[in-house]
Amino acid sequence: MNKRKIAVVITARPSYSRVKTVLQAITEHPELELQLIVAASALLERYGSAVNYIEKDGFTISAKVFNVLEGENLTAAAKTTGIGILELSTVFDNLKPDIVVTVADRFETIATAISAAYMNIPLAHIQGGEVTGNIDEKVRHAITKLADYHFTASESAKERVIKLGENPEFVFNTGCPSIDIASEIVNSNALSFDPYLKYGGVGEQPDLSKGYLVVMQHPVTTEYENSRRHIEETLTAVKELNIPTLWFWPNVDAGADGTSSGIRSFREQNKLEKVHFFKNMEGGDFLMLLQHSLGLIGNSSVGIRECAFLGIPVINIGSRQNKRDRGNNVTDVDYDKNEIAAAIHEMLKSGKAKPSSVYGGGNAGNAIASLLSTVALQFHKTISY
User: How far apart are CA 182 and CA 312, in angstroms?
Assistant: First the structure.
């Protein structure tokens, strides 16, 4: 019997961590063959290329798609999507997958969905049905309508996908695959690596033994003109607190140039004695770093997903994660240095939060691979009522 060919498209560094256990499960499944396609910002070194981590983990890359147009603005994002459709269509034509898997809600992700849909290739979507209130939500729901199979990360997301008119027979709450990795480090007693030695980065190297903060703040595409001001508020709050802090570079979204230039300018004008900056980190290492931190600051979805499972307190800044399902670990604040600083002080007093399984319990990768091996192959659907 021929193995079912599953093409998984990774378009950004967080996407790899999101689906690493799915890739492992597909590789190990006797009835599946993995076709791994790496594209867009996942290939760019300045945003922490994911390729080295992918190959180090033993995965074979079937194709690379270089489609990111310089500019980091709305026009560049739209054109990058268009280039992605052109390039991915050629890759799909060469690989001839039985199912294409696309992840989450980034602008490059919809290129995958459009290419597969127009080429009559069954499409599976991971992390559909969630709400956030920005451009990502439009993209996510559009992909839902293009997809044939839906692997949601929470029960409410599953219900929302069904309400969007999708056939309940092909909507599955598998949980989030990133929780699989979190479940592997939840009982770790201490950091098993030196982040400075292993990942380099730039800036001071503060002593982490008495506690540290982690910051990951991305631009919001619908507020991209304000991205520099937004990051400056966070930088000011962190500087004034003077707590050891490990800061991660933003995604390549519209407004990323404002976020990046804001960080660089602030570093030149201010002495950040206790802040170190990283581009990227392996998924397991990053979660272990979070597990032993005082908390996460910013607007990354890792604060909503993995940190909920691990019980890590999070200060969520701004609108990027609006309306997303969450545990009891999140405090929402505006783009205001005083509000951010006050919330951090309160977080430090309160300590760890109660863990939550709102995004699953750690078996999503195997569940998704099993479903990919058994679902009926289909590429045409009608709205169910």
Answer: 11
Which single residue is written with the structure tokens 């492992």? 24
Task: Name the more confident of 135 and 338.
Answer: 338
Write the CB contacts of 143 (distance below 8 Å, at least 6 apart in sequence): 102, 105, 109, 110, 113, 125, 128
pTM score of the predicted model:
0.85
Task: Give the separation between CA 195 and CA 207, rounded to whole angstroms.
Answer: 11
pLDDT value at residue 155 = 95
Backbone angles phi, psi at 81, to 5 degrees: -60, -45
Q: Residue 20: how many CB atoms within 10 A of its CB? A: 24
- The residue ranges of DSSP E strands in 89-205, in sequence order, are 99-103, 123-126, 149-152, 171-173, 202-203
CB of 68 closer than 8 Å to CB of 38:
no
Neighbour tally for 193: CB within 10 Å: 14
CA distance 43 to 173: 30
Return the residue matching tokens 């390729």. Answer: 51
pLDDT in the model for residue 123 = 98
Q: Of all helices (H) and strands (E), which one includes residue 108? A: helix 107-118
